[in-house]
Amino acid sequence: MEDYYKPPKANLVSDTGFSISPDTKLFKTSGVGVATFFGSLLAGGIIIGLNYLRMNEQVKARNTIVFSFLAFAVFMGAVWFLPESIPGMVYTIVQVVIMMQIARQFQEGKIKHHIENGGRLASNWAAFGISILVLILVVAIFLLVVFVLETYFPDVFI
Fold first, then answer.
1. What is the rounded CA–CA span in Å between residue 29 and residue 151?
2. Are 29 and 96 in contact (CB under 8 A)?
3. pTM of the entire structure?
């Protein structure tokens, strides 16, 4: 016998307005920390951007990646003028703390909601791999700039 008073089954959007497939893999905030530690805040921003892409928020993904690139450029420019007596690990720790706080602020609730609804998580090894790719790209660009400056502008002190 059928229960006529039972509400119909439907895939509804939750109260948070957040609905993605449980098969979608999101990176945890620890993945953002791993990527930032090994590949700078640019890599951490890319991980956050990938999460936004997987959450079907393309504008936020684009803005996150653009702002992380700009923040990376500003941070590297600022480091250039800071005293050499400051250990390099301090800069790394500052980047990791900033990016993890951003990830917690804007994505941790959605990630928890995703997990509670049977969603999957991306591996931190994948975040590590992305960070290594970003690191290789940044070093290659840096070496290219140094090569061009030394070749065409030999009087410029690097």
1. 42
2. no
3. 0.82
Chain centre to alpha carbon of residue 17: 22
136: its two tokens: 């290789």
- Return the H-helix or E-strand segment holding 107: none
Determine the number of helices (DSSP H) and then strands (DSSP E) in the chain: 5, 2
pLDDT values of the chain reduced to their tens digit, one per residue, 158 residues: 567 777 666 554 544 455 788 889 999 999 999 999 999 999 999 999 999 999 999 999 999 999 999 999 999 888 888 888 989 899 999 999 999 999 999 999 999 999 999 999 999 999 999 999 999 999 999 999 889 988 888 887 66
